[in-house]
Automatic annotation (TrEMBL):
The lineage of its organism: Bacteria, Pseudomonadati, Pseudomonadota, Alphaproteobacteria, Rhodobacterales. One of its GO terms (biological process) is polyamine catabolic process. It comes from Tabrizicola oligotrophica. InterPro entries: Gln_synt_N_sf, Gln_synth/guanido_kin_cat_dom, Gln_synth_cat_dom, Gln_synth_gly_rich_site. Residues 117-451 form the GS catalytic domain. This is Glutamine synthetase.
Length: 451
């Protein structure tokens, strides 16, 4: 067999050039989408075909604690991690020549581990493929650049721009606002180019220091990998310029939250034709059934794309976030928007996911809900016209309520995988319990001396 570097994608080979690779990071995303794994000298990596990590990494919470074991016999067996060479990419912010490679998690019998988030997404994509369909997605990433915040007791504030003033809000689409932190944007572009990641566009969003980065449409697993990589490279670019990048859903009070809108269409695997468009470009029954599935099941799916207590601070009226499961054509106030497009590009935009969600799971649950609508031929409600920023009892308002809704949706659980839901529920209920034990500044300010 040829040397392992011959298996690398073109961008990774170009990054290496004639240099010697110093280190390889063997990476896998956990339940939160945090990069876990091992870093090793490239020479050692070249001599191995797989690596080992305990499957308990999927029970670690965002605070570093360990969730309750949802299985009867859990002895922390090792998983076998196998490199997916198509994901190999540079880590261009490092001082030496370092590569990152996403790995597939398998059990010791060679089966994909069902509660690994990347495998969950692959499971959903296979359900489509078995029907002769190919799902296509395009995620949008919103995030904030902020001043360094080393004391969690202090509020997050916008970063200082090149003018010496802090970034201002209410400057959506302003090129001058983006130029305020142009050096960070330059590094984001440079890192993305070195990694072979495609950026469709960058713009100023409505919040102070808030940026939107759009990705071109494509394969769901590849796009989830890209978002996974982008989160890391954006953080590294910000740190180079003495600021933070955050993907929290609502990091700054009084500012809009950050979403990960997901555009989805489905094409016939043989013909490549969009299932949402029929002869002469008319909308099809499949298009309406896909929307119907989203309306029927996304309420339960909120637990997966609003995964933290902070996520629910984004779902408030008049802050450009949907608080409903209505659908409408070119209507940004609905949770499900049908953008203006040609018939070949007809798609549905799910505007509910927050940027704090695991990209594999946000895309997986969107596709899962649409799949259920397609196979069950679920009819949607009538299109909503007008302003849909209304109160709605379809969207849970707390993480606990969202997890309860998820537990009740047996069809969604079956599609996502029962073992995965058990692990996810255990992790999230543990995090929610920890949060409930924290006393907030609001409680001390208003209750300490008044009640």
């Amino acid at each position: 067999m040829s040397k392992w570097t011959d298996q690398l994608p073109e961008a990774a080979r170009e990054y290496i050039g004639n240099r010697r690779v110093d280190e390889v990071e063997c990476v896998i995303g956990d339940i939160a989408g945090v990069a876990r794994g091992k870093a090793m000298p490239a020479a050692k990596f070249a001599k191995q075909t797989n690596y080992f990590l305990p499957n308990s990494i999927f029970l670690q919470t965002i605070t570093g604690e360990w969730a309750d074991n949802p299985f009867d016999a859990f002895t922390e067996p090792d998983m076998i991690l196998e490199p997916d060479w198509t994901t190999a990419t540079a880590a261009p912010w490092t001082a030496d020549v370092t590569l990152q490679v996403i790995h597939d998690a398998k059990d010791q019998m060679g089966n994909l581990v069902g509660f690994a988030p990347r495998n969950v997404l692959r499971r959903i994509v296979k359900l489509y493929n078995d029907q002769g369909w190919t799902p296509v997605v395009a995620p949008e990433m919103e995030f904030f650049l902020t001043a360094r915040n080393i004391d969690p007791n202090q509020p997050v504030i916008p970063p200082m721009g090149r003018t010496g003033r802090r970034a201002a809000g209410k400057q959506a689409y302003s090129l001058s606002a983006v130029d305020e932190y142009g050096k960070v944007i330059d590094d984001i572009y440079d890192f993305a180019e070195a990694q072979g990641l495609e950026i469709d566009g960058i713009l100023q969003e409505g919040g102070a220091g808030q940026i939107e980065l759009n990705l071109a449409h494509g394969d769901p697993v590849r796009l989830a990998d890209d978002v996974f990589f982008f989160k890391r490279l954006i953080r590294e670019a910000a740190l180079r310029h003495d600021c933070f990048a955050t993907f929290m859903a609502k990091p700054i009070a009084g500012e809009p939250g950050s979403a990960m809108h997901i555009h989805t269409s489905v094409v016939d695997s043989k013909t490549g034709k969009n299932l949402f468009s029929g002869p002469r470009g008319v909308e099809t029954e499949a298009f309406l059934h896909f929307i119907g599935g989203l309306q029927r099941h996304l309420g339960a799916g909120v637990a997966l794309f609003a995964p933290y207590v902070n996520s629910y601070r984004r779902y408030v009226p008049d802050f450009a976030a949907p608080i409903n499961l209505e659908w409408g054509r070119d209507n940004r106030t609905t949770g499900l928007r049908v953008p203006i497009s040609t018939p070949a590009a007809r798609r549905v935009e799910n505007r509910l996911p927050g940027m704090d969600c695991n990209p594999y799971l946000g895309i997986a649950v969107t596709l899962a809900c649409g799949y259920l609508g397609l196979v069950n031929k679920t009819a949607p409600r009538p299109e909503f016209s007008g302003n849909a920023y209304i109160d709605s009892d379809e969207i849970p308002t707390t993480l606990g309520d969202a997890l309860d809704l998820l537990e009740e949706d047996k069809a969604l659980i079956e599609v996502m995988g029962e073992d995965f839901i058990k692990v996810y529920d255990s992790v999230k209920r543990n995090e929610y319990k920890e949060f409930q034990q924290v006393i907030s500044p609001w409680e001390r300010e208003h209750l300490l001396l008044n009640v």
